[in-house]
Amino acid sequence: MQIASNIILFAAGLVTGGSAMLCHCRNGRRRAGRAKAAKKGPNKMDIVLIVMAVATVAFVAAMVWLFDRHRQIPETLAVSWFAAVAGEVSICGWIKSAKEKNKDKE
Q1: How many domains in the chain?
Q2: How many CA atoms lie within 13 A of 72 on its CB side?
Q3: What average pLDDT score do residues 79-104 get?
Q4: Residue 46, SS3?
């Protein structure tokens, strides 16, 4: 039973941490089809979002391991991590939407 709950926690962390990255990738592909010039490669913002997604998956795996071993996790660290990730992803989205608005005005 304990292993099943750990797997559920890990899957929930993957969904929570990866959902913003999936939304960003879908929107990027949709816009890329309409763009006149083809993109040459991932830009800095895409790299930041990928690194954040990978780091979040690693963080969730570490928290599951800690919970399995010690029956508790450092809750302040976990809350702070997800607040920082949410803030970073939100700022990236705000920057991207501001750039899109400026392109539309020109």
Answers
A1: 1
A2: 3
A3: 93
A4: helix
Please count the CA atoms within 13 angstroms of the CA of 97 that sit on its side-chain side.
Answer: 7
User: Would the CA dihedral through 97, 98, 100, 104 be positive or negative?
Assistant: positive
Closest CA to 20 of 52, 43, 59, 67: 52
Residue 60's pLDDT band (cuts 50, 70, 90): very high
Q: Of 5, 21, 24, give the one whose Cα is nearest residue 64.
A: 5
Please state, in angstroms and rounded to a whole number, the distance separating the CA atoms of residues 103 and 106. Answer: 5
Residue type, 14: L
Using CB atoms within 10 Å of the CB of residue 8, give its burial: 0 to 12 exposed, 13 to 18 middle, 19+ buried.
exposed
